[in-house]
UniProtKB/TrEMBL annotation:
Entry keyword set: Membrane, Transmembrane, Transmembrane helix
Domain Fatty acid desaturase: residue ranges: 79-345
Protein name, entry field: Fatty acid desaturase
Keyword NAD: no
Pfam families with a match to the protein in the record: FA_desaturase
InterPro entries the record matches: FA_desaturase_dom, Fatty_acid_desaturase
Xref: PANTHER family: DELTA(5) FATTY ACID DESATURASE C-RELATED, FATTY ACID DESATURASE 2
TM helices/strands, residue ranges: 114-131, 161-187, 231-260
Highest rank taxon of the organism: Bacteria
Length: 368
């Protein structure tokens, strides 16, 4: 997901120092062989398998909340930290299913969306409406990499200080979400101007600060309001229980720390999900693929920091309809079917350190 849990940050494109010349990626023509082969080899992989989704989600939730409780209650600081780290990874994996919700039809996974929101979205204050209706714009052919893409910033063309700011600010996301749902949401019911601002600027998991979200309509509007009301009630209840001492302050701070850990890992993953080299021009599908990143096996750690298929982010931009459990097989088939000079092979990278280094080096190029 881009962003998959990407939280808004105040990085402005107009002060990035981006080059006025068109990025090379915007001039890449589509590779018809790649697109045709990807479509052909994935025809039998498009159906989501409910048993995999439910088992994965429920195990992640059980481990995540179990470890969170242990982190709150264990007397040993060392073991509490270990439990906290386990909780971060498990809840991060559970949270990453929000990306799947935007691509899989609800009818293919009956009850899964409701269950995800009840178990993850509302408790972690990231209900699915914050991604639904937003992430699909990132996949729009004419929007990707442009100023109209909610999940894109030309990070590789920005100043070097932009990268640490981009990552560090994510730690504040849980506190910002508490404020959004416990304070701004209730107030916005009575203040129309505030409501417009909350909907347009504080209701999407985006990284483009120029993006303004449209107000919801129809059935989605009712679903939005239900999810928002539930999350607001949870946030207010949580703060009330802490203020009255029913929930110990230590337990509350551990919860915030674990939630911050999930957003931090996700922001690091987001940092390397793309090469971020486009300067605003519309791109072909092949160009979008080459500006995105796969971190396939044999690398092991991406299973932790890019779970639920996110390690195949570039492939996902080729085949957004393939569920996460089918991406590994699609990757293996494409690696065998395509020649070594195919653009597909150029979208695969060895791991996190090399990708971070590549983006850092790009920000240090003088483009004046």
């Amino acid at each position: 997901m881009s962003t998959v849990m990407n939280h808004s940050i105040a990085l402005d494109r107009r002060s990035t120092g981006a080059a006025p010349a068109k990025a090379a990626t915007s001039r890449i023509a589509d590779d018809r062989t790649l697109l045709r082969t990807a479509a052909e080899i994935s025809r039998d992989l498009n159906a989501p398998r409910p048993a995999i989704y439910w088992t994965d989600l429920l195990l992640s939730v059980a481990i995540g909340y179990g470890a969170l409780f242990a982190a709150m209650t264990l007397p040993s600081v060392g073991w509490a930290i270990v439990a906290g780290m386990v909780s971060v990874l498990a809840l991060y994996r559970a949270g990453s299913f929000i990306h799947e919700l935007t691509h899989v039809k609800s009818s293919a996974l009956p009850g899964f969306r409701v269950a995800w929101n009840a178990l993850v979205g509302v408790p972690l204050m990231v209900p699915s409406f914050m991604y639904e209706g937003v992430h699909n714009l990132h996949h729009a052919r004419t929007r990707y990499g442009t100023v109209d893409d909610p999940e894109y910033l030309p990070l590789a063309l920005m100043k070097p200080w932009s990268l640490p700011l981009f990552v560090i600010v994510s730690i504040l996301a849980p506190v910002a979400l508490l404020f959004r749902y416990a304070v701004l949401a209730p107030l916005s019911v009575f203040i129309p101007a505030l409501r417009r601002k909350v909907v347009e600027q504080y209701s999407g998991m985006v990284i483009n600060p120029a993006f303004r979200r449209r107000h919801p309509e129809g059935a989605f509007r009712r679903e939005w309001h239900l999810m928002e009301a539930a999350t607001s009630a949870w946030a207010i209840t949580l703060l009330t229980l802490v203020a009255t001492g029913i929930i110990p302050l230590k337990a509350f701070l551990v919860f915030l720390a674990v939630a911050a850990g999930t957003t931090l890992i996700n922001q690091v993953r987001t940092l390397v999900a793309h090469l971020w080299e486009n300067d605003g021009e519309a791109m072909t599908v092949t160009a979008q693929y080459l500006d995105s990143v796969n971190v396939p096996p044999p690398a092991f750690l991406p299973m932790l920091w890019a779970p639920v298929g996110l390690r195949y982010h570039a492939l996902h931009h080729l085949l957004p309809g393939v569920p996460y459990h089918g991406l590994g097989e699609a990757h293996r088939r494409l690696m065998k079917a395509l020649d070594t000079d195919s653009p597909y092979h150029k979208g695969n990278y060895a791991g996190l350190p090399g990708l971070v280094g590549k983006i850092v080096r790009s920000t240090m190029i003088d483009r004046r």
